[in-house]
Design a protein that fits this description.
This protein has 78 residues and is of the alpha+beta class. It has 2 helices and 4 strands. The chain has one domain. A 4-stranded antiparallel β-sheet has the order 1-2-3-4, covered by helices on one side. The longest helix is centred in the last third of the chain and has 17 residues.
Length: 78
């Protein structure tokens, strides 16, 4: 099992969400972590390339969007 995380409460002054790549026995998964570092959203991917591409897109959204717009876009509780 491999996990790669990025984004932490100190990374973005305005948006404290993060993204995590997780490689498990069943394949790759991308997770959005809420400001408390709990999993708020996840999606399975077919391979590492798809997972890294999705995680990169989510990182851009974390940087570009306000927390409210980010939660609305990904339909997160909040």
């Amino acid at each position: 099992m491999t996990t790669h995380a990025s984004g932490s409460p100190g990374d973005q002054a305005q948006n404290a969400y993060g993204v995590e790549l997780h490689e498990g026995e069943l394949g790759w998964e991308v997770r959005i972590l809420d400001p408390d570092r709990a999993i708020a959203w996840s999606r399975s991917c077919t391979d590492e390339t798809e997972a890294r591409t999705l995680a990169s897109t989510i990182r851009q959204h974390i940087y570009w969007l306000s927390p409210t717009k980010f939660r609305n876009y990904y339909r997160l509780a909040g």
